[in-house]
Amino acid sequence: MTVTPERHAALAAYLRKHEGRDQLRFITCGSVDDGKSTLLGRLLYDTKLLFDDQLAALARDSKRHGTQGDALDFALLLDGLEAEREQGITIDVAYRFFGTDKRGFIVADCPGHEQYTRNMATGASTAELAVVLVDARKGVLTQTRRHTWICALFGIRHVVLAVNKMDLVDYDRSRFEAIAAEYTALAYALGIADATCIPLSALCGDNVTARSPRMPWYEGPSLLEHLETVRVERATGGTGFRLPVQWVNRPDHGFRGYAGTVAQGRIAVGAEIVALPGGRRSRIARIIGPDGDLEVAAAGQAVTLTLADELDIARGDVIADAAHPPQVADQFACRLLWMGDAPLLPGRPYWLKIGARTVGAQVTEIRHKIDVNTQAELAAKRLELNEVAQCNLSLDQPVAFEPYAENRTLGGFILIDRQSNATVAGGTLDFALRRAGNVHWQHIDVDKAARATIKGQKPCCLWFTGLSGSGKSTIANLVERRLHALGYHTYILDGDNVRHGLNRDLGFTDEDRVENIRRVAEVAKLMVDAGLIVLVSFISPFRSERRMARALFGEGEFLEVFVDTPLAECERRDPKGLYRRARAGQISNFTGIDSPYEAPEAPEITLRTVEAEAGALAQRLVERVLSFEPAHGREA
Ligand SMILES: Nc1ncnc2c1ncn2[C@@H]1O[C@H](COP(=O)(O)OS(=O)(=O)O)[C@@H](OP(=O)(O)O)[C@H]1O
Ligand SMILES: Nc1ncnc2c1ncn2[C@@H]1O[C@H](COP(=O)(O)OP(=O)(O)O)[C@@H](O)[C@H]1O
């Protein structure tokens, strides 16, 4: 079953038709084989609200591939979708919708495999309730705990534990009660106020839509009865109006509209607004809905606003009630669910997307990670796939936000890998850290240009990267000697040396190397600011951090010098005997052996040390530097 444009259109039509009707948005989550597909299939079938085309397909597939004889195999209803996922077709979450005369339902179906945590996070961030499945024979598993944790993280306050396959434990009451007790304690520890446990058999239909005579000891509602009647609070935090601007609509010079979905509150024509983070104010001139002008816009509505004044508002800005604006900050305490295959490394730059805004961001500190089985808080220097943690976050620019507990749209974010563009984390902003709030940039009259002029040179950073023993230090040293002899003001920052002082606390794990490069890049930036020609000679093995270093400098100030020497040659030279020791297992995390080196993709200069002598290579570099130095009578 594919999620075709027709089905999306059908969903949109359904939502329109049932606007205003009581609706429950929920997600289903469970481990593989817990029976999630069968349960959902049964629920859809028994409420007789399957689309006809789906039913026909189900009857056909059941005969062909089903495991239930001539009966309908409900699992097949959903497994088509699973199969597409196996083939790597990108479907975040499949939304299904059905209803009874009491309520409409929108279900985000999230597959159970570990690697689909990402999809589950997407589903959870818009759901009001979660149905968590466990197999009665297996009880609460690590996966169950993880899913429940994710539900809690993303603000779901109502959970149903569907204890499935009760038929396979002879509808045993004590088995159910033991699982229910364990799960209720877990949910309570995670702050989930309402955890309802229901014993059922999706396959046999027990307690799914109607109470089962096979479990007379169970006095609670069937799953459907519960879903129809559970009361969920819909309040989304405060009442102040907020609209994250999705796009700026400028068909001609006469019209400038700001389009987006109202994330909170309501606003009327004439009301005073503030555009954040900039802080400029104006009044609402027009509110334009899909069918024409409106007097008022409220949470959930997609509208275009025009303002009385021409403000410089860009995509990603937030238009807010001027009397009750949200906070603006660039440092946060947050909770994070790491979903990247490569680990999270503090200090590494990622993109952060919040509302309609994307900004550069770094996790500055992992305060602790959380063991989903025990809730224990553990020290961590990195986060691996599916780990959750409390972190501090620093953004390159301030953003308007609300704590996640108050508004999911303005408090929820994702992190995106800058190289692959993959979503690597989902998170929630808890509160702003004010540490940077009172630190202002101090203006200094003597600037970089003045310092450079007095030295008669153009400051720059020559960033050498390459394997240990490739020749970075040798060549950098020759370059500096030559420039120095010509009267230039230079400085070499060498990895070995800086690691004796400023970076004495760092080792050679990936996370320590990230921090090592971050610090030395900042130091190099200060030295360039002081007017110097700086030569940085660090292995700097990761593209991501070299890119971060480059971003600190102005146009033409940063030259990446790739000292390109094959590993075998470095090993043959082995000037410090380190390769020999690494091969003997005496040094771990050695670059090129058991720690990666990511060669530059577009360095300004590549020096192949097996093809030319160090002196000749150094001379090439000196000439390159001199080519953009101001002429002042020095001779090369
Ligand atoms: N495990 C491991 N891996 C790589 N290198 C090691 C290691 N242990 C010690 N050394 C010595 O440390 C020097 C590299 O430090 P850097 O600060 O340049 O490394 S990095 O940029 O953080 O990767 C490097 O110096 P160079 O040979 O000049 O590159 C080595 O002498
Ligand atoms: N063309 C060359 N350029 C630089 N170094 C070379 C070259 N050919 C041989 N070498 C030798 O390779 C070794 C490089 O060591 P070093 O400069 O300390 O490398 P790194 O700083 O990259 O670890 C030195 O012993 C140097 O004499």
Automatic annotation (TrEMBL):
Reactions the enzyme catalyzes: adenosine 5'-phosphosulfate + ATP = 3'-phosphoadenylyl sulfate + ADP + H(+); sulfate + ATP + H(+) = adenosine 5'-phosphosulfate + diphosphate
Pathway: Sulfur metabolism; hydrogen sulfide biosynthesis; sulfite from sulfate: step 1/3; Sulfur metabolism; hydrogen sulfide biosynthesis; sulfite from sulfate: step 2/3
Domain Tr-type G: 21-236
BP GO annotations: hydrogen sulfide biosynthetic process; sulfate assimilation
SUPFAM superfamilies cross-referenced by the UniProt entry: EF-Tu/eEF-1alpha/eIF2-gamma C-terminal domain (SSF50465), P-loop containing nucleoside triphosphate hydrolases (SSF52540), Translation proteins (SSF50447)
Active site: residue positions: 540 (phosphoserine intermediate)
A GO molecular-function annotation: adenylylsulfate kinase activity
EC numbers for this chain: 2.7.7.4, 2.7.1.25
UniProt superkingdom: Bacteria
Binding of GTP, residues: 30-37, 109-113, 164-167
Positions annotated to bind ATP: 466-473
A family per Pfam: APS_kinase
Record InterPro entries: APS, APS_kinase_dom, CysN_GTP-bd, CysN_II, CysN_NoDQ_III, G_TR_CS, GTP-eEF1A_C, P-loop_NTPase
CDD domains noted in UniProt: APSK, CysN_ATPS, CysN_NodQ_II, CysN_NoDQ_III
Keyword terms, alphabetized: ATP-binding, GTP-binding, Kinase, Multifunctional enzyme, Nodulation, Nucleotide-binding, Nucleotidyltransferase, Phosphoprotein, Transferase
Subunit-structure text: Heterodimer composed of CysD, the smaller subunit, and CysN.
UniProt family annotation: In the C-terminal section; belongs to the APS kinase family. Belongs to the APS kinase family.
PANTHER family assigned: TRANSLATION FACTOR
The protein, known as: Multifunctional fusion protein
Gene coding for it: cysC
